[in-house]
Backbone:
C-alpha cells in the first residue's frame, strides 16, 4: 500500500535530498514549507545553503510538470506541493495560534480526512525533526515520524576505537615478552579496524592486563609507544583511554584523529599538550591552529564589541583556559604575552574564518565538532594541506545545533566513515578527570 509523507521544513533544511528517501510513495510539501525555506535562503550558513539547494531542486522539477499536481521522482514515487488542504478548522479550537508548525499539521490532517471521506485507507505520515510537532500530530490521531535517513548510526552503537578482550594470563605475558601478539591467537572472531586498541585482561580475574594497538595489516597486536609513560608538555595520562589518545596524537603517521567523550574527559587539554610538544619541542609542524564553531557555524559575531580577537574571546575562552593550565600562568595578561612571544605559533580562530583556506604543515584542533553538519565536516577535512594533522573532538550527546542530534552530526559521520582507513584513528574517552565533583555531576545529573 502506498503512503503519503508530508515533510516538515526542518527535514529539507537538514537533508535537501530527503525527497528521495521515501521509495515509491508520495512526498507532499505544504506551501507553508516553501515560505519557510524562502525565508532561509539568505542565510550564509549551512541552513541557507540547503534552503537554496532545495529551491533549485524544486525549480528543476517544476520544469518537468506542475508541482501542485505531482511530478515523478527519478528513483520512484511522486513529489507534490500541496496548496488545497490548508484549512485550519479542525485545529483552531485546540491549537489557537496559526503557527507554521500548526499549519503543516493541518495540511497532513486534512489530507488524511479527505482519504477517509472517500473510503480510501491511505496512510498519511508527517515527517519532522521537531519532537513537539510529532507529539501534537499524534494528539490529533495523525501518524508522525522522525526523519532517520540522515542518521549515520546510533551513538550508543558507534565506534569507540577500542575493545576489551579476556585472554589467558600466558598470552598477556607473551605479549610483554615478545612485544607483539598474533591476532589469530586470540581465538576471538571480530572485524578489526586499523589502529583499533585492545585491552587484554586475564579471563580468570587476576590483575594482569595490557594495552595494545592493531597493526595496519590487522595481523598483530602491538604495544603502545614508550612516551605513554612520560609527561606530554607536563600532562600525563590518567586512565586507559587517555593513554590510547596520546598514542594517536603523537603518531605522525596518522593525519586524522577523532575524539568523542563527555565534558572533562581531557579531550582539549591532551590535544593542546600534544600540539605544543610537536611544535615547540619536535618542530614537526609550523604552528598550531585551534578553532571551534561559533554555533551555528557561519553565524556572524559582529554584534560583539571590539576587534576580531576581542569578539572571539568569549567563544574561545575554554581554549585559553587550557592554555593557561599548560603554561602555568597565574596573572592576567601572562598568557597573552607568552602567545605574542611565540610569534603566532599558536593561532586561535573561529571556524567561520577557516573556509576557503588551505592549511599545510599545521597541527589543527577543531573543538566542539559535534556541532558540525556532514557538509561542514567535509569542508574542513578538504582544507587540510600536505603535512598537517587534524584533530576533531566533541561530545555528540551535547549538541547546540538546532537540526543535529547525536546520530547525524558531522563528528559521528567522520568517525564512522574513516574507521576503515589507516590514515585515521579514533578513541572515545569514558572517564572524567576534571575533578571528582565534575565526574560525579556528569554521572548522576
Residues:
Amino acid at each position: 500500500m502506498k503512503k503519503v509523507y508530508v515533510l516538515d521544513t526542518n527535514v529539507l533544511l537538514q537533508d535537501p535530498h530527503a525527497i528521495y528517501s521515501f521509495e515509491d510513495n508520495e512526498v507532499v510539501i505544504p506551501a507553508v514549507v516553501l515560505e519557510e525555506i524562502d525565508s532561509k535562503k539568505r542565510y550564509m550558513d549551512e541552513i541557507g545553503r540547503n534552503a537554496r539547494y532545495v529551491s533549485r531542486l524544486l525549480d528543476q522539477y517544476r520544469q518537468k510538470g506542475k508541482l501542485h499536481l505531482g511530478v515523478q521522482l527519478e528513483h520512484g514515487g511522486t513529489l507534490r506541493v500541496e496548496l488545497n488542504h490548508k484549512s485550519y478548522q479542525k485545529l483552531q479550537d485546540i491549537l489557537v495560534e496559526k503557527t507554521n508548525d500548526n499549519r503543516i499539521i493541518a495540511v497532513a490532517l486534512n489530507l488524511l480526512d479527505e482519504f477517509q471521506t472517500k473510503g480510501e485507507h491511505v496512510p498519511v505520515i508527517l515527517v519532522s525533526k521537531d519532537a513537539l510537532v510529532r507529539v501534537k500530530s499524534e494528539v490529533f490521531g495523525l501518524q508522525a515520524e522522525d526523519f532517520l535517513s540522515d542518521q549515520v548510526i546510533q551513538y550508543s552503537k558507534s565506534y569507540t576505537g577500542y575493545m576489551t578482550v579476556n585472554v589467558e594470563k600466558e598470552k598477556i605475558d607473551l605479549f610483554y615478552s615478545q612485544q607483539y601478539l598474533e591476532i589469530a591467537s586470540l581465538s576471538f572472531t571480530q572485524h578489526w579496524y586499523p589502529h583499533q586498541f585492545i585491552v587484554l585482561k586475564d579471563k580468570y580475574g587476576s590483575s594482569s592486563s595490557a594495552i595494545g594497538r592493531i597493526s595496519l595489516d590487522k595481523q598483530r597486536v602491538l604495544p603502545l609507544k614508550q612516551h605513554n609513560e612520560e609527561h606530554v608538555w607536563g600532562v600525563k595520562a590518567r586512565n586507559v583511554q587517555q593513554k590510547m589518545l596520546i598514542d594517536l596524537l603523537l603518531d605522525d603517521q596518522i593525519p586524522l584523529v577523532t575524539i568523542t567523550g563527555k565534558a572533562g574527559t581531557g579531550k582539549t587539554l591532551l590535544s593542546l599538550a600534544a600540539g605544543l610538544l610537536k611544535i615547540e619541542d619536535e618542530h614537526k609542524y609550523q604552528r598550531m591552529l585551534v578553532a571551534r564553531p561559533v554555533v551555528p557555524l557561519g553565524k556572524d559575531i559582529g554584534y560583539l564589541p571590539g576587534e576580531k580577537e576581542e569578539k572571539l574571546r568569549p567563544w574561545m575562552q575554554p581554549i585559553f583556559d587550557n592554555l593557561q593550565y599548560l603554561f602555568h600562568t597565574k596573572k592576567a595578561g601572562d598568557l597573552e604575552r607568552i602567545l605574542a612571544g611565540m610569534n603566532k605559533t599558536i593561532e586561535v580562530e573561529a571556524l567561520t574564518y577557516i573556509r576557503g583556506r588551505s592549511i599545510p604543515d599545521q597541527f589543527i584542533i577543531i573543538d566542539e565538532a559535534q556541532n558540525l553538519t556532514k557538509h561542514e565536516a567535509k569542508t574542513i577535512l578538504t582544507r587540510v594541506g600536505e603535512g598537517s594533522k587534524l584533530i576533531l573532538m566533541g561530545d555528540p550527546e551535547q549538541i547546540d545545533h538546532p537540526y543535529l542530534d547525536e546520530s547525524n552530526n558531522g563528528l559521528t559521520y567522520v568517525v564512522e566513515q574513516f574507521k576503515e582507513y589507516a590514515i585515521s584513528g579514533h578513541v572515545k574517552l569514558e572517564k572524567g578527570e576534571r575533578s571528582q565533583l565534575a565526574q560525579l555531576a556528569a554521572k548522576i545529573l
The mean pLDDT is 88. The two ends are 46 Å apart (CA to CA). Residues 371 and 400 are 6 Å apart (CA to CA).
